[in-house]
Amino acid sequence: MASKIKKIAVLTSGGDSPGMNAAIRSVARTCAYYNIECIGIYRGYQGMIEGDFLPLNARSVKGIINKGGTVLKSARSQEFRTPEGRKKAHENLLKEGIEAFVVIGGDGSFTGALIFNEEFNFPVMGIPGTIDNDIYGTSHTLGYDTALNTVVEVIDKIRDTASSHNRLFFVEVMGRDVGHIALNVGVGAGAEEILIPEEDLGLERLLQSLKRSKLSGKSSSIVVVAEGDKIGKNVFELKEYVEENMTEYEVRVSVLGHMQRGGSPSCFDRVLASRMGVKAVETILEGKSSYMVGLLSDKIEITPLNEAIKGKSKINKELMRVADIMSV
Ligand code: ATP
């Protein structure tokens, strides 16, 4: 592939997710394959502003494909939101001879990249790395599949306690704006109810449904609640409401929190990261800029960054129907 570009940087930005390391490795190795220099930027855009760079060759990314988190570290940089901060970052990239960068992160990181491209006409490329799967232009973001597997395993364990004590558990999972994790783990772990931001069941319907479950012979129940669910103010309020209205159940709450973001990436995420890294570098070498690579109908495709940022990932309606039928 003939290209004028000889040096590409890679950084991880925003919240970490499993698979980021596999993507860093893929970008570095694809650069090595095409005889291009690769530079790792530490601590996201803050490291770009401070010139915190490290050359990466094919061997320096060994042994990281199976590691969670990000070896390049991540950060949220307020300074990069200012024109002065971005100017410093641009000067550092020029000084180092970097001609394009690949950012692995969420929509905030992509917004920063797009602004940077518009200000300095600097080639940028995005790889979606977030467990929430809330990005348009890809059926899966990096880390999402791993998070689903992690959460299903935990809910299976919670169910052991729930059924031993006739308890009702509210399990809160990540997903402030979208319910992909809740819906999928709810179906995968056999939850009785799934509460997601996209659908407001209402407290009364939740109660009716739990009462129906009880009458049908269920002695315990798991309700999976996405962080951003709109029914109650929070999962503890839901607990109080149900306890007041269903004295036959002992109700418990489990908030899973940050453990959902960690851990060794699943095989699916490692493969996806490897494919995305190759496509990101090859797209830059084709002279393109400001795209996000994504998985669409099992093919790695590119979507303009501005569409990826503005578009909404849609909840799977068919899966919502399956969830309904399964909780009969
Ligand atoms: P996550 O999905 O985990 O939250 P994210 O990439 O959306 O990941 P953000 O904190 O929103 O995470 O963004 C990461 C970084 O991108 C910010 O700390 C900031 O440096 C940069 N960024 C975000 N929005 C902008 C913006 N409007 N202008 C410039 N930079 C931005």
UniProtKB/TrEMBL annotation:
Subcellular location: Cytoplasm
Reaction(s) catalysed (UniProt annotation): beta-D-fructose 6-phosphate + ATP = beta-D-fructose 1,6-bisphosphate + ADP + H(+)
Positions annotated to bind Mg(2+): D107
GO biological process: canonical glycolysis; fructose 1,6-bisphosphate metabolic process; fructose 6-phosphate metabolic process
Binding site for ATP: G15, R76, S77, G106, D107, G108, S109
Positions of the catalytic residues: D132 (proton acceptor)
Pathway terms, separated by semicolons: Carbohydrate degradation; glycolysis; D-glyceraldehyde 3-phosphate and glycerone phosphate from D-glucose: step 3/4
GO-annotated molecular function: 6-phosphofructokinase activity; AMP binding; ATP binding; fructose-6-phosphate binding; identical protein binding; metal ion binding; monosaccharide binding
Binding site for ADP: R25, S26, V27, A28, R29, R159, G190, A191, E192, K218, S219, S220
Activity control note: Allosterically activated by ADP and other diphosphonucleosides, and allosterically inhibited by phosphoenolpyruvate.
Cofactor(s), by name: Mg(2+)
InterPro entries: ATP_PFK, ATP_PFK_prok-type, PFKA_ATP_prok, Phosphofructokinase_CS, Phosphofructokinase_dom, PKF_sf
Keyword field contains Endoplasmic reticulum: no
Gene Ontology, cellular component aspect: 6-phosphofructokinase complex
Alphabetical list of SUPFAM superfamilies matching this protein: Phosphofructokinase
Pfam family, one: PFK
Domain Phosphofructokinase: 7-284
Ligand binding (substrate): T130, I131, D132, R167, M174, G175, R176, E227, R252, H258, M259, Q260, R261
The protein's enzyme class: transferase
Its biological purpose: Catalyzes the phosphorylation of D-fructose 6-phosphate to fructose 1,6-bisphosphate by ATP, the first committing step of glycolysis.
Complexes and interactors: Homotetramer.
Protein known as: ATP-dependent 6-phosphofructokinase
